Amino acid sequence: MIGMLRGRVLHKQPPHLLLDVNGVGYEVEAPMSTFYALPLGDETVTLHTHLAIRDDAHVLYGFTAESDRALFRALLKVSGVGGKMALAILSGMTADEFSLAVQAGDAAALTRLPGVGKKTAERLIVEMRDRLEKMGAPTGGVSVAAGGAPAGGHTPLDDALSALLALGYKLADAQRMTKGVDCEGLTTEEIIRAALQNTR
Q1: What are 19's strand-pairing partners?
Q2: Is 27 in a helix, a strand, or coil?
Q3: What is the mean pLDDT of the chain?
Q4: What are phi and psi of 5, to 5 degrees?
Q5: Are 14 and 166 in contact (CB under 8 A)?
Q6: Do residues 45 and 88 both lie within one domain?
Q7: Which one of 61, 62, 139, 159 is CB 3.0 to 4.6 Å from 188, fit for a cystine?
Q8: What pLDDT band is residue 24 in, cutting at 50, 70 and 90?
Q9: CATH number, domain with residue 121
Q10: Is 188 among the domain residues?
Q11: Please, which pLDDT band fits residue 137 given cuts at 50, 70 and 90?
Q12: For the chain, how many structural domains are there in total?
């Protein structure tokens, strides 16, 4: 099991990262919370990782915060939640926001996340409430949401749309969310952050 990687980011296109660790390039999938925390320059970054072994692939997920990895692993134990949906949840909400939504029974906030329908939201509330308490997550009541995404290209906006699609958002939703963002001078991650905030 690969539990941690430390190296330089060679390439990033959400939700994918290529991390150079002593000359070995690791392909890692990460939530937007990790992309927001990455250094802008050529600094070394440490990622807490989770390796998922499937019949068709080995997928490495990376997180700058251990708490995000812990929540990711807890989400994978929920029936019907896979790696893609867990990444989308962590991209559309912070771990604290998700915890508060679950503790408050706020299914409406959860259904605004891509791929999360009413039944899945209810299952998340029921199955995650006790797990979050054991993890020491905050309790309270707050409502949060997530954003959308379209096709691929080479501008930061095109890359942002591609990333949102990869996270599970529908093209129409992604285009609507990014339409209100003044993208001039913004990086891909900044556009995605602004688009996700538009749904709140």
Answers
A1: 9, 26
A2: strand
A3: 83
A4: -130, 140
A5: yes
A6: no
A7: 159
A8: very high
A9: 1.10.150.20
A10: yes
A11: low
A12: 3
Residue 25 lies in a domain: yes
From first CA to last CA, the distance across the chain in angstroms is 37
| 71 in any annotated domain | no
Question: What are the CA-CA distances from residue 132 to residues 107, 117, 143 (Å)?
Answer: 16, 21, 17
User: Is the distance from CB of 190 to CB of 163 less than 8 angstroms?
Assistant: no
Q: What angle do CA 199, 30, 125 make, to 5 degrees?
A: 55
Is 143 among the domain residues? no
Domain extent at residue 117: 83-134
In eight-state DSSP terms, residue 114 is: T
Confidence class for position 187, pLDDT limits 50, 70, 90: confident
Taking the CA of residue 164 as centre, how many other CA atoms within 13 Å lie in the half-sphere pointing to its CB?
35
At residue 153, the pLDDT reads 44
Residue 58 CA to residue 55 CA, distance in Å, equals 8
Q: Which residue's structure tokens are 């990033």? A: 12
Among 35, 63, 91, which residue terminates a domain?
63
Asked if the peptide bond before residue 138 counts as cis, ω within 30 degrees of 0, the response is no
Residues 55 and 105 in one domain: no
Please name the residues in contact with 199: beta carbons below 8 A apart, sequence gap of 6 or more.
92, 112, 145, 146, 147, 148, 177
